[in-house]
Amino acid sequence: MRLSLRAAECLLLAALLLLSAACGSRLPERAFEGRRSAPPPARKAEPVRIGIITSATSPVGGAAFTGPRDGALAYFDALNAGGGIDGRKVEVFTCDDGGSGVGNNDCVHRLLDERKVFALVATTALEYAGAPRVAAAGVPDIGGQPIGPAYDTYPHLYGIYGSDAPRTGGEPGWNGTLYGGTEVYRYFKREHGARTAAVVSYNQAASAAYARLVTKGLRAEGYRVVTEQVDFALPNFRAVAADLKDRGADLVFDAMDTHGNVQLCEAMDAVGVGITAKVTHVQNWSSAVAEDFRNAPRCRNTLWATGSSRNYDDVGHPAVREFREAMREAGKDRELSQWQLEGWAAAMWFTDAAKSCGRALTRACVEAYLNREEPYTARGLLLPVSYERRAEPPASRHTCLSVARWRDGAGWVTQGGDMTRNCFTVPQLPYRP
């Protein structure tokens, strides 16, 4: 499965967020946010209707899941300013599902049955309960963030990272098992000579399960692994930090939410822990790091992020510059994130698929583009994305990696050379979602 360890990270995130507050059983009053109407078309033509579902008012707060939506909206605004798709404007309807399964099902109903959208783009839902209904309706969902196993389970759903799973609508992956690679651990071993890694988790089922997966991958790459666990309700991060210092960890991985990461970093600074890298995931790859970790300057400057898309701070790349300019035009550039860039890429993916159809725009034609043999890269913003339907999971995979490091005053600085050449052949390890 292509980079499915990302899905494991998101499954952990979803489980941890659900611990912090109960999801509402009703859709919020502003759940259906309305539509963004493009300027009148140059010629009379029906607009292409697109839906975007986001857990914008989820228990974790308003900014956690909105990045992909904002990136996609900026792309469609720029697209409409340039004439749309074959002269047809894109009309976007957004829906906030409130982070609940009931709200998600309601959003799916409103967008598919009432708004009659042609496709969904950049879905970012804490609980994608409506996924079976989307699949049954044959509505393409393109470039969604896999916060859960839906994109490795159902046909017509195309997550931003791709998949090799059969996706027949039954169990996720292969008979309920997903697979992830060890490329992140291989990178730090090869590039930085790291040999000892710590894995910090909560004493909570989802956190502990993800920590076991990380530990398994590290050991497969030959690391000595130090495991640390803290109480979810009353965590003693100071004790963890002291032990990390005593045991000489090179790397620190975690199975915690952002709040836990910040507390751990502050404790590490307080006791003087020196490490090569504090490794985080794509959702924390944002300019908010400066504020979130403001009280942990030493640890903050050891933060590294890994992912499957080109660093949004890599302004030397023309596609990144185009994204940044559009975000500026949309007034969304005060806080930038990797998820915004991936939402932009998702909208581009849909648009390129639609344009390939010419005036004969059909869902079948769009999906033929998505399922083609040639991988998709969004003009170099994504590592090659493809969808296959393998009967058996691969034992190993040649996988590439995007890596960046936070530096005060410079933001996220790309590491390890171009992501298309930062590649490894690594084993694929099983896990249950």
Automatic annotation (TrEMBL):
Signal sequence interval, chain numbering: 1-21
Keyword Signal found: yes
InterPro entries membership: Leu-bd, Peripla_BP_I
Signal as UniProt keyword: yes
Pfam family, one: Peripla_BP_6
Family: Belongs to the leucine-binding protein family.
Protein name: ABC transporter substrate-binding protein
